[in-house]
Amino acid sequence: MTNEGVNHAKRRFLTSALSVVGAVGSGYLAVPFLSQMQPSAKAMAAGAPVEVDISKMEPGLLIRVAWRGKPVWILNRTPEVLQTLTTLDSELADPTSNESTQPASSKNAGRSIKPEVFVAIGLCTHLGCSPTFRPEIAPPDLGERWKGGFFCPCHGSWFDLAGRVYRGVPAPTNLEIPPYKYVTEELIVIGEETEEAVA
Known about the structure:
Order of helices and strands: HHEEEHEEEEEE
Largest sheet: 3 strands, antiparallel
CATH superfamily of the largest domain: Rieske [2Fe-2S] iron-sulphur domain
Oligomer: single chain
Structural class: alpha+beta
Number of helices: 3
Number of strands: 9
Helix content: 10-25%
Strand content: 15-25%
CATH class of the largest domain: Mainly Beta
Shape: elongated
Radius of gyration: 28 Å
Strand order of the largest sheet: 1-9-8
Number of domains: 2
């Protein structure tokens, strides 16, 4: 077979043009496919940091916010509560929080950046139930050992008001402390870790 009468320049042009059209077509097909693999705006917002204004929190008040689909507690602890925390070490499984999850800025006796403001994820470390806030001391149903804290009604785990777990309960570790920081004295951002502790 002979190649006489074949225009090679025209053939190269058509081959190049078809290659470009094929690449562009592949791009148009790939963009919708790849974009559906991106998380939705709702999913991205669920993991976004959350700002919380604590300026109106009275001593003893607990507020709840949601971050990444989890309940987060913010408790304004009274001076009496802070004194009680120091008396519980012998009752607790991990009083110094060596086996628990918290940012470096919260690895201290109160498990917080500022002693009076406690921030924790409100899920029991046993099976993920949400404990109830029980600030009263020695209620009839919990007895004389109870100095106020968080009680998990699902399986009976006890946590003090620093989220530290008592000995002999199903929960294996203290409540988790999320990353958080102070933007101002009265504004906390949950989901972003502070670079250094605020005194």
